[in-house]
């Protein structure tokens, strides 16, 4: 499999190239040059297999020929052994033809573990082969940082530095990052906001000397290797609910458009998905573009589903590429327009094409709380605010559907105990942490508080790396 950039002028790369480069040199995102396809028989043959076995079959064409089967199987098995629930993505029923897919049974209690666990091991595998090291640097407002730390902890070929805004993450989120006891994990609390952290990160990536010196690498969802493992749970859920002999719908709480793009990818490889519902919180740029065609940047509104508080959904570019018949120049033009004017308009033909598969729903804060409450009353199940945005969107779609017999699966993206205050506010019940995290509040925290100053931070990273290499 080779990968092509959405902006058309970067060279094609193999899987290893896409993994190690992240963003293409022309500023675009890598997508598969062609979509491999699975026949109805191939899909039927996956019924009843274990999650790692399905994962191997679905992802194999995407990593071929870079990673031999036996090595890849080992990477997958180890990745999913870290999940408390070995089915990785269990379904639970909310109502007639209405399902939740629980993606939060991994080490950090959010769906990002499903891909990140694989990504960390893929990095190690390739770096071993090339006898190289990298330094992962990231900025986080919560979920991404802890998932990345869990993925990189103890890996022999990588160190990780995660910046979070000091005193501005939830305590659960901070402790999940700062209590990891591994000598290649380094937390930095920046005296500033999440935007300050992101600006520091951008400045480090733009400083070519620093970048080359520490062999910097990112972990955000523009990397194809983070999208790829997410296709698997769409396939696993669909075949267990009767695909390919029945169509399935999915609703996805959406921020950066990575998770739902994986659903689109699953459809391209042959999964009979009828509808993909984009569920947004108040940050509704995607709902607006679907409903009006105007892709216009707005302000970021902080909500109780913070992992979806985005201004721009980077992975939307991957969908645009297909909507514009893979015309890289057209995409480069749209993206330049967006940078220069803060807006572009999706063409009428392209919007109609998108609406054949996607619909979008915006869910406000009050509706989110009500949904948490209603689900608890109906089924005694506690759901987190991100999941609630999805469930409300799914209800609306089911109510409006003429044929209600197609199963609707809502992706449950975080464990309720990650956002205990709002869940308690809605239901009166405080969700307990799962067994393996009960001592989270007793574990020792390790982090360094630094001012919002580029030079102080880069000096700290250099010194810490030097000290780390002496202890190995
Ligand atoms: C990251 C995240 C999302 C959004 O996923 P995207 O791939 O960015 O669209 C939704 N819910 C939770 C809990 C997340 O951590």
From TrEMBL:
Catalytic activity: O-phospho-L-homoserine + H2O = L-threonine + phosphate
Coiled coil region boundaries: none
Matches recorded under InterPro entries: Ser/Thr_deHydtase_PyrdxlP-BS, Thr_synth_N, Thr_synth_N_sf, Thr_synthase-like, Threonine_Synthase, TrpB-like_PALP, TrpB-like_PALP_sf
Modified residues (N6-(pyridoxal phosphate)lysine): 112
Pathways per UniProt: Amino-acid biosynthesis; L-threonine biosynthesis; L-threonine from L-aspartate: step 5/5
Record's keyword annotation contains Lyase: yes
Enzyme category, top tier: lyase
Residue ranges crossing the lipid bilayer per the database entry: none
Keywords: Amino-acid biosynthesis, Lyase, Pyridoxal phosphate, Threonine biosynthesis
EC number: 4.2.3.1
Domain called Tryptophan synthase beta chain-like PALP: residue spans: 92-330
Domain named Threonine synthase N-terminal: residues: 2-80
Signal sequence extent: none
GO biological process per UniProt: threonine biosynthetic process
Protein name per Swiss-Prot or TrEMBL: Threonine synthase
Gene symbol of the encoding locus: thrC
């Amino acid at each position: 499999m080779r990968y092509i950039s959405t902006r058309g002028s970067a060279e094609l790369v193999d899987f290893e190239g896409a993994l190690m480069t992240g963003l293409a040199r022309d500023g675009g995102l890598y997508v598969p040059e062609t979509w491999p396809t699975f026949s109805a028989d191939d899909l039927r043959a996956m019924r009843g297999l274990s999650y790692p076995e399905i994962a191997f079959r679905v992802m194999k064409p995407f990593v071929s020929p870079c990673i031999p089967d036996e090595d890849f199987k080992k990477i997958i098995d180890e990745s999913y052994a870290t999940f408390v629930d070995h089915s990785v993505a269990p379904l639970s029923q909310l109502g007639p033809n209405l399902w939740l897919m629980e993606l939060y049974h991994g080490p950090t209690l959010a769906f990002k573990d499903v891909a990140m666990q694989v990504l960390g091991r893929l990095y190690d595998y390739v770096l071993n082969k090339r006898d190289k090291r990298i330094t992962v640097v990231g900025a986080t407002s919560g979920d991404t940082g802890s998932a990345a730390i869990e993925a990189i902890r103890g890996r022999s070929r990588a160190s990780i530095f995660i910046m979070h805004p000091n005193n501005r993450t939830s305590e659960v989120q901070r402790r999940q990052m700062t209590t990891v006891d591994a000598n290649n994990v380094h937390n930095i609390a920046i005296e500033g906001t999440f935007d300050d952290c992101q600006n520091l990160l951008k400045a480090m990536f733009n400083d070519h000397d620093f970048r080359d010196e520490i062999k910097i690498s990112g972990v955000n969802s523009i990397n194809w290797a983070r999208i790829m493992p997410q296709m698997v749970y769409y396939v696993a859920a669909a075949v267990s609910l009767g695909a390919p002999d029945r169509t399935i719908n999915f609703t996805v709480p959406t921020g950066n458009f990575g998770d739902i793009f994986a659903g689109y990818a699953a459809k391209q490889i042959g999964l009979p998905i009828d509808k993909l519902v984009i569920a947004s919180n108040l940050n509704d740029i995607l709902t607006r573009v679907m409903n009006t065609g105007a892709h216009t940047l707005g302000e970021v509104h902080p909500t109780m589903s913070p992992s979806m508080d985005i201004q721009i959904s980077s992975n939307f570019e991957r969908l645009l590429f297909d909507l514009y018949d893979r015309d890289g120049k057209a995409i480069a033009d749209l993206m330049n327009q967006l940078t220069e004017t803060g807006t572009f308009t999706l063409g009428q033909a392209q919007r109609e094409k998108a609406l054949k598969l996607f619909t979008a729903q915006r869910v406000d804060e009050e509706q989110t709380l009500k949904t948490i409450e209603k689900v608890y009353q109906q089924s005694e199940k506690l759901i987190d605010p991100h999941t609630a945005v999805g469930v409300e969107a799914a209800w609306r779609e089911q109510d409006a559907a003429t044929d209600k017999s197609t199963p609707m699966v809502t992706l449950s993206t975080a464990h309720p105990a990650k956002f205990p205050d709002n869940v308690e506010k809605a239901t009166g019940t405080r969700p307990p942490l799962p067994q393996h995290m009960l001592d989270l509040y007793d574990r020792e925290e390790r982090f360094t508080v630094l001012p919002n100053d580029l030079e102080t931070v880069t000096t700290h990273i250099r010194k810490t790396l030097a000290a780390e290499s002496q202890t190995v």
